[in-house]
Amino acid sequence: MAGSGFSFWRGGGDGGQPKGARTPVQRLIYWGSVLAVWGIIFLVVFFAVFARDLPDTSTLYNIDRQPSITYLDRNGALIAVRGTQQAPPADLDALPDYVPAAFIAIEDRRFYHHPGFDPIGMTRAIAANMRAGRVVQGGSTLTQQLAKNLFLSPDQNMKRKVQELMLAVWLEMKFSKEEILALYLNRVYFGAGAYGIEAASQRYFDKGAKDLTVGEAALLAGLLKAPSRYSPVSESERAAARATVVLNEMVDAGVITAEQRAQAVTEPVRVSRTLATQHAQYFVDWLDKQIRELVGEPTEDMIVETTLDLTLQTSAERAVRRILERDASRGVQQAALVALDGEGRVRAMIGGASYTDSQFNRAVDARRQAGSAWKPFVYLTALESGYTPQTRVNDAPIRIGNWSPRNYSGSFAGEMSMANAVAQSTNTVAAGMADQIGRDNVARAARRLGISSRIGLEPAMALGAVEVSPLEMAQAYDAFANGGKRVRAYGISRIRTPQGRVIYQRASRETGPVQAISNPYLYYMNQMLRGVMTSGTGRAAAISGRDTAGKTGTTSDYKDAWFVGYTGGFVTAVWVGKDDNTAMRGVTGGSAPAAIWKAFMQAALPRLNAPAIPDGPPMPEGWQPPSPVESLIGQIGDLFGDNPPGDRAVDPLDESLREPQPRQRPTAPERNDQPVLRPTQPQPQRDPPAPRPEPAPPPEKKADPLFF
């Protein structure tokens, strides 16, 4: 077929133009329609993906927070507030102009000029982060931050950022700028459990937000970047530097003048004493678990009335701090202190050198060897087995199985009274006596007085090879101080709501006395432990004009040093050492621990108005007191080496006590199969051999600086 075929071009008309071709206007309309359709499809998918699980904005005014727990001392003074603190919302109009302006200046300078997000700020932040190669600047507006705080999680991902933008725009459409700013200031987190500027002002400065100064407002505004990193409590220098940045931004924004900035810098910002006093936090930590055991998980705000005395607590903190600083060169890095009254109420508790550096509570949770502070349990058992302070005992070499105890001096004093052995902390006598009367009986006596830790029955137990806490030791010694009654240490008197409804009240039956030591054994123990203070290893802790008694404790390797002492109805246990369980440089119970004890008790006793140590229950019928025990205590040197020689009064901060006394490595004692303890008729006291000079221990690497 000539001329037949197919053609895909069906031209027609003049000029050969295709039939039905669109004009430029038609093409614009066509492609615009196509893009619009795809845009609608994209938006539908976008909202389906990102808006599908947006939070319910009807919860805007709901506050979801943990209940707060307020801790008061025995006199009603504030110790601490734990949990979330939510104060009534602050009225924006009642705040000084520079308070909200400080937040705008540092967080969102263009707050009044953007629709919820700031393209200029976002571009600037992206450029800065690209130059630095890391995130150094954020582009979120104040409204975006509010959206995140109110509705979203802190997760950093694209979906959350898009949702944040969407919610920020919604907030801007629904509320005025002033309402958004008020919501922000009343809901943002300032650290230390405080939500909102009113709670933060009360928590950090003990004042309302309307009374904030320029410097205080700058400090709070600077906190928002990282509340823990810029905390004025634990990071005071960093917080001050950040506040200075805020002040500079306030000047640049015209919020304050250069003169106001200069004045703010020169006026010190004083943080609440409650937050600054960190050592009471060990006590609060100890109570926290107990509260949940007593009332369950808190579901409402509570006020806990405690037994702590903040005045005594401050005295304890001061004593510990001064002696740790004084003896840092001797390797004294940590300390713990527990003070109880005669009913077992905790009046002061120090759990370590710095709560900021370590929250581990050494007063309650640490278990360290008690050393010779354990010996009163041995001697109490001996008294109950028929011994008296006048019983003659023999300080001589002894072997129990494969173990031979040694005295600190390396020498033996021969025959002496039991009272003298207690005062001089003679190891051979205590070890032999425990072996004779039964170490299981010693363990039972310690349990009866309040020791709850594991007690091994190996021979070294008699010399304190038992790991105990300072709280246990104070609890056990309290029976010597209160007339022989066993106590259980406690710190909570009552728990109530802010409205006054009582949730828990410590019942009288919980504190009812249980007689743990009868007489004359209590009388004898108090007489002998008084001798420790008057002429024994605890002379450094003696307080003139006060009826005091106690016992030193030192482990043979200088890893632990103790002093546990008491007066009428008040006992204090002190421990010093290192967390890594390495040795200190010749630190004994009669040096640093005794100095802490004395410094604390000298400050505490006038406030306590403590009586003399009570005699306890009635004596058996026909019992006659012996001649004064003091006459039986020989005027010999300090065999245990816990004190400087001489009878002079010892200042707990005496610099002469900083260097350890020279000591000689003791020679191994010879085997002696003769019984060591033989009660005999009193004989004239023989003078012991003079102490031999001892070389100083090897030097130790200087400790790291303390941050107290």
Structure, described:
It is a single chain. The chain is of the alpha+beta class and 708 residues long. It is 36% helix and 11% strand. It is built from 20 helices and 18 strands. Strands 2-1-5-13-14 form a five-stranded mixed beta sheet, with helices on one face. The protein has a five-stranded antiparallel beta sheet with strand order 7-6-18-17-16, with helices on both faces. A hairpin with a 2-residue loop joins strand 17 (560-567) and strand 18. Helix 2 packs parallel to helix 8 (214-223), helix 2 (98-107) crosses helix 9 and helix 14 (375-384) runs antiparallel to helix 19. The model is unreliable at 1-16 and 629-708 (pLDDT under 50).
List keywords for this structure.
5-stranded mixed beta sheet; 11% strand; alpha+beta; disordered N terminus; disordered C terminus; single chain; 5-stranded antiparallel beta sheet; 708 residues
